[in-house]
Amino acid sequence: MNIPENTDGIWKRAEIDSPCVKVCVIEPNSRLCTGCLRSIDEIGAWSGMTIEARKAVMAELPARAGQIAKRRGGRAGRMK
């Protein structure tokens, strides 16, 4: 079996790809995943969503990047 680079085959089905990048951390203020920018509700509902609903979520993702609070950088950030 030939699996494409950078994938483990989990999300390879005959449907729209998941935006998951396997960096699953929910930012507490925005309640968005810092990896894929989906809400916790969207992540939970993803497998049951229609193709149209998934496309709508995917279209919104680029605009969500600004909603994630930037970390200060731990100790280095506090020392500035």
Q: What do these coordinates show?
A:
The chain is mainly α. It has helices at 40-45, 51-64, 74-79; strands at residues 26-27, 32-33. Strands 1-2 form a two-stranded antiparallel ribbon. The longest helix is centred in the C-terminal third of the chain and has 14 residues, at 51-64. The radius of gyration is 16 Å and the shape is elongated. The chain starts with 25 loop residues before the first strand and ends with a helix. The relative contact order is 0.15.
Low-confidence sequence ranges: none
Order of neighbouring strands in the sheet with most strands: 1-2
The radius of gyration computed from the alpha-carbon positions, rounded to a whole number of angstroms, is 16 Å
| Residue-averaged pLDDT | 80
The count of helical stretches stands at 3
Biggest sheet character = 2 strands, antiparallel
N-to-C span: 51 Å
Outline:
The protein has 80 residues and is mainly alpha-helical. Helices cover 32% and strands 5% of the residues.
Notable traits:
single chain; 80 residues; mainly alpha; two-stranded antiparallel ribbon; elongated
Itemize the secondary structure elements and their pairings.
Elements: E1 26-27, E2 32-33, H1 40-45, H2 51-64, H3 74-79
Antiparallel strand pairs: 1-2
